[in-house]
Specification:
- With about 300 residues, the chain is mainly alpha-helical.
- Helices cover about 90% and strands about 0% of the residues.
- The chain is built from six helices and no strands.
- Helix 2 runs antiparallel to helix 3.
- The protein is rod-shaped and about 165 Å long.
- The termini are far apart.
């Protein structure tokens, strides 16, 4: 509006100057006084015009900076809202290693986004310091309150994202350990089962002693692994309990746990029974050998 008035007044000034110059040229009555007034008016107008143009330029630059600041703040607010919604909406896919890996990659992507946006946050904070000297007290308060709110939300989303990432990493590590332990245990139990089911025909007492020794070692190994088995199964069942949102996945994991536990129980019993059978057989063999020696 001030700029429009300046243009209107310039047209008026041009008209006055043109008319005055004609009067001076004609040397009409009072032309000398008019000439002096005209000489004084033009520099004053130039000074006012220069000051007003400078003020307008400063205001336009300030408005452009403020508008740019508001856009950056709006972008950051939008990103924070999206991340907050995402973090709260998606739960860790406990027990599903493939999905957990994908979730971890997404979480790492969010961490990378935060690092990328840090310079933008710094620019926004710096811009407040640049804008404040040009602002009214009310606008200064607005900028300060807006920046304080953004800083708080930024800090909260960083904390939230880190907690989410740490939680996903923990769940993934535990899930991986459970599946690795169960896989290793299943592989070992299968090899033991095959060995136990292989036909054995000891021909001498020494053969029986070797078999007894072997089965005792196997029994000791089973006992030494019992704590590991129980820990893996308990951790697995804990994970099953946390899979309320994925009943199908929970059922699959429970079936695998039950299968491993049953296989473990069967083999332990098998080793116990076979060791007893071998021990009894060896005792019978010794009795038989004693009777044969007496004859």
């Amino acid at each position: 509006e001030l700029q429009n008035q300046l243009l209107v007044q310039r047209d008026t000034l041009n008209f006055i100057c043109s008319t005055a110059e004609e009067i001076v040229a004609e040397k009409a009555i009072g032309f000398e006084a008019l000439s002096v007034q005209l000489v004084n008016l033009t520099p004053r107008w130039s000074d006012i015009e220069r000051v007003l143009n400078s003020q307008l330029t400063r205001l336009e630059n300030g408005y452009a900076k403020l508008n740019e600041w508001n856009l950056k703040v709006a972008d950051l607010d939008k990103w924070i809202d999206q991340v907050t919604d995402f973090v709260h909406a998606e739960q860790p896919a406990v027990g599903n290693l493939e999905t957990l890996k994908a979730q971890l990659e997404q979480s790492q992507g969010l961490s990378a986004d935060i690092e990328t946006l840090k310079p933008k946050m710094q620019q926004v904070e710096s811009a407040v310091g640049d804008l404040a000297p040009q602002c009214t007290p009310e606008m200064k308060d607005y900028l300060k309150n807006r920046m304080d709110d953004l800083d708080k939300r930024w800090t909260d989303v960083i904390r939230l994202t880190k907690a989410k990432h740490d939680g996903l990493h923990d769940v993934h590590t535990r899930s991986q350990k459970i599946f690795d332990d169960i896989q290793q245990l299943t592989t070992w139990l299968t090899s033991v089962e095959e060995e136990l089911n292989s036909p054995v025909a000891p021909a001498t007492g020494k053969d029986l002693q070797l078999l007894i020794k072997k089965h005792k070692q196997l029994k000791d190994e089973l006992e030494s692994r019992s704590n590991t088995v129980e820990a893996a199964v308990c951790l697995g069942e804990e994970m099953v309990g946390s899979l309320e949102s994925s009943p199908e996945m929970a059922q699959q994991l429970q079936v695998q746990l039950n299968s491993t536990r049953n296989q473990w129980s069967v083999i332990c019993q098998h080793v116990h029974d076979k060791l007893k059978h071998l021990t009894d057989s060896f005792e019978h063999w010794r009795e038989l050998q004693g009777k044969l020696l007496k004859k």
